[in-house]
Write a structure and sequence with these properties.
Blueprint lengths: L3 E6 L5 H7 L4 H8 L1 E4 L12 E7 L2 E3 H13 E7 L1 H5 L12 H14 L6 E6 L9 E3 L6 H12 L8 H4 L3
Parallel strand pairs: 1-2, 1-3, 3-5, 5-7
Antiparallel strand pairs: 4-6
Bound molecules: iron/sulfur cluster.
Protein backbone atom coordinates (compact mmCIF):
# COMPACT_ATOMS: atom_id res chain seq x y z
CA UNK A 1 0.00 0.00 0.00
CA UNK A 2 1.29 3.48 -0.88
CA UNK A 3 2.01 6.06 1.86
CA UNK A 4 -0.86 8.49 2.36
CA UNK A 5 0.13 12.15 1.87
CA UNK A 6 -2.03 15.16 2.79
CA UNK A 7 -1.57 18.91 2.58
CA UNK A 8 -3.48 21.54 4.54
CA UNK A 9 -3.93 25.29 4.14
CA UNK A 10 -4.51 27.32 7.33
CA UNK A 11 -3.73 31.04 7.80
CA UNK A 12 -1.45 31.51 4.79
CA UNK A 13 -1.56 33.01 1.31
CA UNK A 14 -1.39 29.65 -0.56
CA UNK A 15 2.08 30.58 -1.82
CA UNK A 16 3.54 27.47 -0.17
CA UNK A 17 1.08 25.31 -2.10
CA UNK A 18 2.00 27.19 -5.29
CA UNK A 19 5.61 26.25 -4.57
CA UNK A 20 4.50 22.62 -4.10
CA UNK A 21 3.06 22.81 -7.64
CA UNK A 22 6.48 24.08 -8.78
CA UNK A 23 7.69 20.52 -8.23
CA UNK A 24 6.49 20.19 -11.84
CA UNK A 25 7.28 16.79 -13.39
CA UNK A 26 8.47 15.41 -10.04
CA UNK A 27 4.79 15.51 -9.03
CA UNK A 28 4.18 12.67 -11.51
CA UNK A 29 6.90 10.55 -9.81
CA UNK A 30 5.60 11.56 -6.39
CA UNK A 31 2.02 10.56 -7.14
CA UNK A 32 3.29 7.19 -8.40
CA UNK A 33 4.75 6.62 -4.94
CA UNK A 34 2.04 8.13 -2.68
CA UNK A 35 -1.70 8.57 -2.50
CA UNK A 36 -2.64 12.24 -2.09
CA UNK A 37 -5.66 11.96 0.22
CA UNK A 38 -6.47 15.53 1.31
CA UNK A 39 -5.64 19.16 0.53
CA UNK A 40 -6.69 22.19 -1.49
CA UNK A 41 -5.71 20.38 -4.68
CA UNK A 42 -8.50 17.83 -4.06
CA UNK A 43 -12.25 18.06 -3.47
CA UNK A 44 -12.23 16.10 -0.19
CA UNK A 45 -14.25 17.66 2.62
CA UNK A 46 -13.07 15.77 5.72
CA UNK A 47 -9.47 15.16 6.80
CA UNK A 48 -9.09 11.35 6.61
CA UNK A 49 -7.71 8.87 9.15
CA UNK A 50 -4.36 7.10 8.84
CA UNK A 51 -2.39 9.79 7.04
CA UNK A 52 1.35 9.12 6.93
CA UNK A 53 2.64 12.63 6.20
CA UNK A 54 0.86 15.99 6.25
CA UNK A 55 2.32 19.32 5.09
CA UNK A 56 0.54 22.17 6.91
CA UNK A 57 0.79 25.66 5.40
CA UNK A 58 -0.04 28.82 7.34
CA UNK A 59 -0.27 29.97 10.94
CA UNK A 60 -3.16 29.40 13.33
CA UNK A 61 -5.29 32.55 13.15
CA UNK A 62 -8.87 31.46 13.87
CA UNK A 63 -10.88 28.67 15.48
CA UNK A 64 -11.34 26.78 12.21
CA UNK A 65 -7.55 26.73 11.73
CA UNK A 66 -7.10 25.36 15.25
CA UNK A 67 -9.71 22.63 14.84
CA UNK A 68 -8.22 21.55 11.50
CA UNK A 69 -4.70 21.51 12.92
CA UNK A 70 -5.73 19.28 15.83
CA UNK A 71 -7.48 16.93 13.40
CA UNK A 72 -4.37 16.77 11.20
CA UNK A 73 -2.18 16.03 14.23
CA UNK A 74 -4.47 13.33 15.63
CA UNK A 75 -4.82 11.57 12.28
CA UNK A 76 -1.26 11.84 10.91
CA UNK A 77 1.98 10.08 11.83
CA UNK A 78 4.27 12.91 10.65
CA UNK A 79 3.35 16.59 10.61
CA UNK A 80 5.54 19.07 8.74
CA UNK A 81 5.32 22.83 9.37
CA UNK A 82 5.22 23.98 5.76
CA UNK A 83 6.61 27.50 5.20
CA UNK A 84 7.48 30.44 7.40
CA UNK A 85 3.89 31.27 8.45
CA UNK A 86 3.53 27.75 9.86
CA UNK A 87 7.04 27.81 11.38
CA UNK A 88 7.12 31.30 12.94
CA UNK A 89 3.78 33.04 12.29
CA UNK A 90 5.51 35.26 9.71
CA UNK A 91 3.18 37.47 7.64
CA UNK A 92 -0.02 36.11 9.21
CA UNK A 93 1.14 37.03 12.70
CA UNK A 94 1.52 40.72 11.76
CA UNK A 95 -2.11 40.89 12.87
CA UNK A 96 -0.79 40.53 16.45
CA UNK A 97 0.52 44.09 16.14
CA UNK A 98 -2.96 45.47 15.50
CA UNK A 99 -4.06 45.46 19.13
CA UNK A 100 -6.88 43.65 20.90
CA UNK A 101 -9.48 41.60 19.06
CA UNK A 102 -12.26 44.08 19.82
CA UNK A 103 -10.40 46.77 17.87
CA UNK A 104 -9.84 44.38 14.96
CA UNK A 105 -13.51 43.37 14.89
CA UNK A 106 -14.45 47.04 14.97
CA UNK A 107 -12.50 47.49 11.74
CA UNK A 108 -14.03 44.32 10.28
CA UNK A 109 -17.65 45.14 11.12
CA UNK A 110 -18.69 45.86 7.49
CA UNK A 111 -17.23 42.46 6.53
CA UNK A 112 -19.09 40.69 9.33
CA UNK A 113 -22.39 41.86 7.83
CA UNK A 114 -21.21 40.76 4.44
CA UNK A 115 -20.06 37.30 5.55
CA UNK A 116 -21.75 36.03 8.73
CA UNK A 117 -19.85 32.73 8.58
CA UNK A 118 -16.45 34.39 9.04
CA UNK A 119 -14.65 32.04 11.50
CA UNK A 120 -14.01 33.64 14.91
CA UNK A 121 -10.47 34.97 15.22
CA UNK A 122 -8.22 33.77 18.02
CA UNK A 123 -6.83 36.57 20.22
CA UNK A 124 -3.31 36.01 18.82
CA UNK A 125 -1.87 34.33 15.73
CA UNK A 126 0.57 31.52 16.57
CA UNK A 127 2.78 29.09 14.64
CA UNK A 128 1.80 25.42 14.61
CA UNK A 129 4.21 24.25 17.33
CA UNK A 130 2.42 26.52 19.82
CA UNK A 131 -0.48 24.03 19.76
CA UNK A 132 0.77 20.64 18.51
CA UNK A 133 3.92 18.57 18.20
CA UNK A 134 5.68 19.32 14.91
CA UNK A 135 7.99 16.66 13.45
CA UNK A 136 9.79 18.72 10.79
CA UNK A 137 10.12 22.40 9.88
CA UNK A 138 10.26 23.37 6.22
CA UNK A 139 11.29 27.05 6.20
CA UNK A 140 10.98 29.64 3.45
CA UNK A 141 8.42 32.14 2.22
CA UNK A 142 7.64 30.08 0.33
CA UNK A 143 10.04 27.12 0.62
CA UNK A 144 11.44 26.55 -2.87
CA UNK A 145 10.42 23.41 -4.72
CA UNK A 146 13.87 21.81 -4.41
CA UNK A 147 13.79 22.12 -0.62
CA UNK A 148 10.24 20.72 -0.50
CA UNK A 149 11.36 17.76 -2.60
CA UNK A 150 14.40 17.06 -0.40
CA UNK A 151 12.32 17.03 2.78
CA UNK A 152 9.28 15.18 1.43
CA UNK A 153 11.36 12.49 -0.30
CA UNK A 154 13.42 11.83 2.83
CA UNK A 155 10.46 11.74 5.18
CA UNK A 156 8.52 9.38 2.92
CA UNK A 157 11.55 7.06 2.80
CA UNK A 158 11.94 7.17 6.59
CA UNK A 159 15.23 9.12 6.44
CA UNK A 160 16.21 12.36 8.18
CA UNK A 161 16.17 15.18 5.59
CA UNK A 162 19.71 16.35 4.72
CA UNK A 163 19.53 19.88 3.33
CA UNK A 164 22.48 21.30 1.41
CA UNK A 165 24.00 24.55 2.79
CA UNK A 166 22.22 26.46 0.02
CA UNK A 167 18.88 24.82 0.89
CA UNK A 168 19.41 25.76 4.54
CA UNK A 169 19.46 29.47 3.66
CA UNK A 170 16.13 31.24 3.77
CA UNK A 171 14.15 32.04 0.67
S1 LIG B 1 5.19 31.35 4.19
FE1 LIG B 1 5.02 32.97 2.65
S2 LIG B 1 4.26 31.91 0.84
FE2 LIG B 1 3.84 30.55 2.60
S3 LIG B 1 1.77 31.09 3.29
FE3 LIG B 1 3.19 32.38 4.45
S4 LIG B 1 3.32 34.30 3.28
FE4 LIG B 1 2.47 32.75 1.93
Amino acid sequence: MKPRLATMWLGGCSGCHMSFLDLDEYLIDLFDKVDLVYGPLLDVKEFPDNVDVVLVEGAVANRDNLEMLHKARQRSKILISFGDCAVTGNVTSLRNLCGPLDDIYQGLSPLKDFDPILPPLLPQVHPLHHYVKVDYYLVGCPPDAERIRTVVEAVLEGREPQLTPRQRSFG
